[in-house]
Design goal:
This protein has 248 residues and is of the alpha+beta class. It has 10 helices and 10 strands. The radius of gyration is 18 Å and the shape is globular.
Length: 248
Amino acid sequence: MAGHSKWANIQHRKGAQDARRGKLFTKLIREITVAARTGGGDPGNNPRLRAVMDKALTANMSKDTIERAIKKGTGAGGTDNYDEVRYEGYGPGGIAVMVDCLTDNRNRTVGEVRHAFTKIGGNLGTDGSVAYLFSKVGVIGFAPGVDEDRLMEAALEAGADDVVPNEDRSVDVLTGPESFEAVRDALAAAGFKPDTAEVTMRASTSVALGQEDAEKMIRLLERLEDLDDVQNVYSNADISEDILAKLA
């Protein structure tokens, strides 16, 4: 279950977010465009758009860039038509992997995703082959050193489902998708500033990996994240802090 946070940690340690900022912006603009197209350009009435706008602002994207992407999605400035596609597969050690994409060419995207899997000895599965292992959940992450007792009290009072300490002493507050924003805002009002906050897909069970499979898994995740059409990658990999430290 800690795989989500640990993957975020390894990205941070390797400076991946800074190195790939241009690619990150491309993915965020595409997500904003699709969110506006499917749910309208008013973030007050479009939770999906509001969430990705928050993520874009956190990544230091300008408001002008966000506004242009919204206009593009609502038909004022572009006709790009992206399909939402999810691929499921298996990584090293039988790790379950889900890959969410936005694409204007499904043949290109599935070829690139399949290639990423086969390069490390994994394979694509059929629809539903691993999706049952994941559920949609709000995850509000706090850095090591947060006052866990105070955070737990504030989180549960705000309506969170659970508070989960991780091996590296970071803490995740878990919520239902529908209560995510209310809990996040209540914690911010109580003085708790999260490191990360998003609605994501979280695995119900995890699989611990040794160093060799962990190296392969990180290569797979990086290959997938580098693909322009890939928006999010989820897995049930559990990589220990000791192994992550050796790979960083």
